[in-house]
Amino acid sequence: MRETTRRKLVIWDVNWSPHAGEFSRLLGEAWEVRAGQGDIEWLRRELKEAAALVAVSLPSIALPEARGLGVFLYPGAGLVDAEAGHYPLGCPVVNVYEHETPIAEYVLMMMLAHVTGLRQHTEALRQGCWEGSGRIGGRPHEELAGQTLGLLGYGRIGRAIAARARAFGMRAVAVRRSEGTCVDELDLLGGPGRLRDLLRQANFLVIAAPLNRETEGLIGEAELALLPAGAFLINVSRAEIVKERALYEALISGRLGGAALDVWYQYPQPGERGFGSKLPFHELPSVQCTPHYSAWTQGLIRRRIAGMCENLARWSRGEDLERVVLTGQWRP
Amino acid sequence: MRETTRRKLVIWDVNWSPHAGEFSRLLGEAWEVRAGQGDIEWLRRELKEAAALVAVSLPSIALPEARGLGVFLYPGAGLVDAEAGHYPLGCPVVNVYEHETPIAEYVLMMMLAHVTGLRQHTEALRQGCWEGSGRIGGRPHEELAGQTLGLLGYGRIGRAIAARARAFGMRAVAVRRSEGTCVDELDLLGGPGRLRDLLRQANFLVIAAPLNRETEGLIGEAELALLPAGAFLINVSRAEIVKERALYEALISGRLGGAALDVWYQYPQPGERGFGSKLPFHELPSVQCTPHYSAWTQGLIRRRIAGMCENLARWSRGEDLERVVLTGQWRP
Lengths: 332, 332
Hints:
Strand order of the largest sheet of chain A: 8-7-6-9-10-11-12
CATH superfamily of the largest domain in chain A: NAD(P)-binding Rossmann-like Domain
Largest interface: A-B, 69 and 69 residues
Number of helices of chain A: 9
Helix content of chain A: 25-40%
Radius of gyration of chain A: 23 Å
CATH topology of the largest domain in chain A: Rossmann fold
Structural class of chain A: alpha/beta
Oligomer: homodimer
Order of helices and strands of chain A: EHEHEEEHHEHEEHEHEHEEHE
Largest sheet of chain A: 7 strands, parallel
Shape of chain A: elongated
Mean pLDDT of chain A: 93
Low-confidence stretches of chain A: none
Distance between the termini of chain A: 36 Å
């Protein structure tokens, strides 16, 4: 079915504008794709005749020009805060997932690197030191097999982690917003009331819940104290779910055996240097600090572009959009 | 059933003698456990009335005292070279496995650390550099999902690796000594004639075959050249299966994207320092060097002691031994 007029998609995002060519290839001749970033006057001009927009949010100054938008494509999976006023009224906002695969890969890697003492052993051997070698009577390390994984949050990411952890012979327990029927890949799935049960058995605590009023600061000193001695914490969601100073103190006291932190309490601007916290997590040998990169893969980009283009093509054909976060029906 | 006389087990090994108490606990009152290392006169005295021995091999000077042995427990899974003359004639030699779990964990960890650029990113962030961050427009990394794992060797270790790789959405192909029916967790299982097919598609080549006349030097310059550009090699078996200089040159030329080496061309004596090769693999940023430690876990030790004690208890009851490597029937 050939459309008589081309529709315009505007991409306004540092990560997605460079892929305009791929959007164009997948959408075909029915869509004109325009991409930019930084220049708000450019954005205001382009928005006037745009049918769809890829952006994380809009500067409020550009909202009036966005009244004709048919679809707002949020290029990620985070919760969209409707009250922040960064979205044009009346326009449905849709999101896209596909981050569960790389995030689950990251979590398994960090658990494995912890039990094997990867960093210590590779750094030692670069100095010619064979500590830990089974050939010459070294101290043995641990295995994932038989250990318990505790998941705070059990959406797509939690499920992807649990499925892989099962293949390693781990136990897996999860707590999420609402009670639910336990699923095959878990030993326990509970609501918020089961958090303390989960913490008492989790050799690995993975933060995989969204940040919201219920989860902000949910893991503090008392919660960390419930974990088994030497437990390992992995945060792939949002830093603010774990209280910054309580986490740091549990790490320097040795109560926690370590942490892998991919999300941070502060971020530098693009191109700038800086640390993710005012506390020196990056100086602790038991902590693996990574630059909010766990989901940021070539596969994620390819799948998200495909997912956004499929949603747009569906809408072009008059079908229902998928993954609608805001319906646009709350126009006052 | 209570035995009237206690039988004696002698343990003569740097790694297993320290666990004499655990052997004793599992074997119970029917067995006296004696452990030592280093003092050959002690060994010769103890062997005279021993019914069973845990050791990797015997010094030939102690072989005459070992004539009364009923079982020689080799505490590992390596092939036992009967012709080397380190085992008493007429005594069955049994081995024990249980290393497949930690070795598979190691292999998955190293594949994950490679695709995510773990070392580069953690070292960079310790300097405040956010290269690779999805939050600030960094360069994306890769995923395991969809990549092809090539296994040279498909015994217990290969199967444990393939099962986990499947949970990550990888393809898995394997070549082993003899042709075989393809199994569920593989896309291809072939004999030695399929090695070139395997190499052409393996993004990850894992050496998991035993060292013997067929495998020594099997992977050289020509074989490495068949791998896809940027492939990653992991050796968890024996270094000599991969030609030392050919591997080094493929790494420095960039033809290979990297390697994880846990087994080495040379080993230091216990307590000494040294490198695993005369070539400076440890100076290459694309190579993760580990001290022959992939299998050396607390879980391995626990399971191997249990496996050896179960075999001994079976023999005490007059039942057949399991995992017999040399039957003792080749006594001349």
